[in-house]
Design goal:
about 140 residues, alpha+beta
């Protein structure tokens, strides 16, 4: 079985087609930086980042999902991008793979403190527009 790989350069992005699925490298870079800096990193999501990289519907969803007191009115539920595990067998969390799916969806596979997780995100025009939450840990722990 042969694998067709084509690369098309545009002014701001590189598109890689692999097996019929197109991966926009700027979308992958956006998702990778979100996870490295904010989801698994120590930076807090701020209004400037959120309003640049998320659709208005996602901004509202992340704000509405924030369950704690928020003095600045600038608080977002970043934990939704990972498993619901509080602790795991490893101290470090990391991305395993970002895989393109159909219709602008990407599957982010990761280890969340050693616990496998998958979150699906939709990216359109450089903004995250939708999320499919990973509930596999919740199902395993019941």
């Amino acid at each position: 079985m042969s694998l067709l790989l084509s690369i098309v350069l545009t002014s701001a992005s590189v598109f890689v087609s692999c097996g019929g699925q197109t991966q926009n490298t700027s979308d992958v870079d956006l998702l990778r930086s979100l996870y490295v800096q904010y989801v698994f990193g120590d930076q807090l999501l701020d209004s400037a980042y959120v309003h640049t990289h998320f659709s208005s519907e996602m901004v509202k969803f992340l704000k509405d999902s924030y369950e704690y007191d928020c003095e600045s009115n600038d608080c977002y539920a970043v934990w939704l991008f990972r498993t619901s595990a509080q602790d795991g067998p490893m101290p470090k969390s990391e991305i395993s793979e970002i895989k393109p799916l159909k219709d602008h969806w990407y599957e982010v596979s990761y280890l969340d403190m050693g616990i496998s997780g998958i979150t699906k995100l939709r990216v359109i025009d450089g903004q995250i527009t939708a999320i499919e939450l990973d509930k596999s840990y919740d199902e395993m722990s019941e």
